[in-house]
Fold this sequence. Notes:
By secondary structure, the chain is of the alpha+beta class. Among the domains are: 12-111, CATH 2.40.50.140; 133-251 and 541-605, Bira Bifunctional Protein, Domain 2 (BirA Bifunctional Protein, domain 2), CATH 3.30.930; 302-432, 2-Layer Sandwich (Gyrase A, domain 2). Helices cover 30% and strands 24% of the residues. The strands form 6 sheets. The protein has an 8-stranded mixed sheet with strand order 6-9-10-24-23-22-19-11, sandwiched between helices. A hairpin with a 2-residue loop joins strand 2 and strand 3. Helix 7 (286-293) crosses helix 13 (414-432).
Amino acid sequence: MRRTHNCGELRQADIGKKVCMQGWVRFSRDHGGVEFIDLADAYGITQLVFDPEDITSGADKNSISESLRSFTRESAVSVDGIVRKRIEGTEDPKNRTGEVEVLITKAEVLNRSKAPPFELGDQKEGVLPGEEIRLRYRYLDLRRTEMIEALRFRHRFISAAREYLDKNGFVEVETPMLTKSTPEGARDFIVPSRVHPGTFYALPQSPQLFKQMLMMGSMDRYYQVARCFRDEDSRADRQPEFTQLDMEMSFVDMKDIQEMIEGLVVHIWKKIYNKKLKAPFRRISFDEAMNKYGSDKPDLRYGLPMVHITDIVKNAPYEIFQNVLSKGGAIVGLNVTSDLRMKDGEDSIGRNEIDRLIHFVKKSGLGGMTWMRATKDGLDSNIVKYFTPDVLSELKKEMDVKEGDLLLLLAGPKRNVLETGGLLRKKLAEDLGLTDPDDFLFAWLVDCPMFETDPASGKKDAFHHPFVMPTTPLDIENVGGASFDLILNGSELGSGSQRIHDPEVQRKIFKMLGLSDQKIETDFGFFLEALGYGAPPHGGIALGLDRVISILLHRETIRDVIAFPKNKKGQSLLDGSPQKVDDEKLEELQILSIAIDDINIEDIE
């Protein structure tokens, strides 16, 4: 290769070497006839210097000068030169190559760039352009250090995962992209078939059925860096197309799967951070997570648990509480202790802050919030008069109240109270600075329910998916499922489960979810047939790679760790998709294209 070194490579030991550097012109500065250029590539930035006074004999100064005049910002260029030490006092300690520079002896433009639509150098707060502009010119955005680091980190993460899985006997297998449309929770993207007009493939929401059938086919240990597709609204942690690290194992139980994943995470941590991660991870039941933290993916780096006080205050003549209790509601409290609130001798939650918290709770769906402060004389607030001394004493004991503590009380329908309490807990942690962004705490959510009921329709849905092995008899009210989630700092990284391997149990689960015999046969007949041929006990997990990487790199959205993501509306601003297709292509697929403007309402009537 003509290039001898990349732009992040040169050090003092290279002084005196003749080098060829190639990259993009990030900045250029003319200091009284001496020109300085920052040359960038995927590895770093090196300072180049054109100094006519110091130029070596034999170099064509005029030719160099003429070439440099065509060095527009972000042009791809090639430069020959000699490495020299920077003048004392001009070193750049923030740059790995900041002790040296390259004296230019030859310069060439490889491809001249138009003026870029935004600045690509080290971005300061407020300088970075909006996301829509960066997605429109993603090929330029990918030159930014932050994006380069994200993609390289993602590569290292996946490489470490592959290394671990290979050592543990896993085989990487690709599963189909063109599949059968089956109900798995989200809407499918469908693809028309030209060969079989009027029929459609679906892009996979996950490789779920195929990886289970790999277990039936004796693969025993499978994994895949799998592309998945779901036609759902985009959010900060969702994309229409995403990537998951998908795994499945035969002849295992839940404990085996969890231990394998813990080993995987510990291995990755050692490879990337050179730190030993503590395992096994904490286990927390679904009921405990919801009742104490108001979330099935609680952030366990801090306390602030909810305390259920319904039975303590049920006889207090406080009208708001009594109205809630008469409708079967619940009352919980959070104790924001004085040691959490006191900053430099001042209480960080004063009366104005309490009012803002009340407003936050109302926006979250509850009617409001009441509160009490613990003083040396006892609990104090405008509602204390409604509670007897015995109730107040029991409340202090149950919530472990000490002088200076602040109690925040929520009342309403139980589900709303728990969810709002979880949001309030998270807000308090943010406001009080209770988390260290570099502290990563993994945990397992276990003992999950098999089903959940839609509060509006009363319809029973699968809590995770319909292939989870039940852990209790199916004829009881609250059926348990052998599923589990890996959670990290308040986010779910992935879900796993022991799978159903008995076709009759699987058929019963489908029926409990409201599927008719015909629907079961149409959508899942092939899968039930496969289960009937000696399917082994098996299970697995899928980790959302985009989400994991975004959390570890402290990115606000997974779009910042994906090379070519869609925007919030599911559009690719880079290539303009989705777009209309030519009528000729639709005709070839035997699909009728009708523009809304061409429809005559009278004809329809």
